[in-house]
Structure formats: C-alpha cells, structure tokens
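From: lab user (bench 3)
To: helpdesk
Subject: output format question, protein + biotin

Hello, I'm new to running complex predictions and I'm not sure whether the block I got back is the full result or only part of it. Here's what I submitted:
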Amino acid sequence: LCCGTNAESPLLQCVLTGRWTNDLGSNMTIEAVNKAGNFAGSYHTAVTSTTNEIQLSPLQGSQHRTNEKSQPTFGFTVNWSFSDSITVFVGQCFVDKEGREVLKTMWLLRSHVDGIRDDWKATRVGTNVFTRLQPQK
Ligand code: BTN
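Helpdesk reply: Thanks, we reran it on our side. This is the complete output you should expect:
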C-alpha cells in the first residue's frame, strides 16, 4: 500500500505483490510485478470441484499499466497441479474507504470433460474478494 492518487482514496495505491486470502479461505502469493506488468505466484485453494487432494498450484498474470494507475486492473491464470482444470481470474485492486486493499475478481473455471457432448457443463463462473494476509508477528 503506497502512494498514488485517485478520486476515492487520495495518496493510496493498491499493490498486487504479497499474500492474499479470499472469501472461500483460499490463499495466494503474488511475486514481484515486472516492468511489463507481468507476475507469477502460487495459489492454495480451500475448495475443489474434484475428489483429488488439493496441492499448491502456480499462477501467471498481468497487471495493466504499471505505475500509472493506483487501482490497477489485472488478470491471472491458475494451472491446477492436482486436476485437469484451469481457472482464469480478472479483477481490480481497490483501496477501500478504510484504506485497506481489496481485490474484486470474477473467475471462470474450466474443467476437463471427456467429449464435446459434455462441453455445456464444463465451465463454472463466480466471484471472489481478496484481502491482504497480515504478516504473522
Ligand atoms: C478444481 O477444482 O479443478 C481446481 C480447484 C478450483 C478452485 C476454484 S477456482 C475458483 C474458486 N475460488 C477459489 O479460491 N477456489 C475455487
């Protein structure tokens, strides 16, 4: 949380890098955002549509216009290590009226199906809200 300006929260900038938790109890870590706006990270989901054992999974994403906007839009893909599925998230990093950062996202979860006849049931959609995980003292 740093020092940009915008209409809602002057002097507060929303920064993607760090550890986040969402309304399902899933946790993710976003590594440094590079000059092009690209980043990597890891995702630990609290839930799964499968019967497989949950494992930490890699994510890759992009943030729009690094350094220009204080509440950037972004997207990232999670390539699940323990299933044949992929989730894409899109969202925006906001600073709320208390000055806390919040990621408002929507996602599409594509599951593997055996054939085109099952395509109709292969995609789930939803929303997640992420807040920053506070470092343990
Ligand atoms: C799978 O079930 O095949 C992989 C795990 C999917 C977890 C989904 S992604 C969207 C939603 N948000 C989360 O934090 N977890 C679920």
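A quick orientation on your result: The CA atoms of residues 63 and 74 lie 4 Å apart. Let us know if anything else is unclear.
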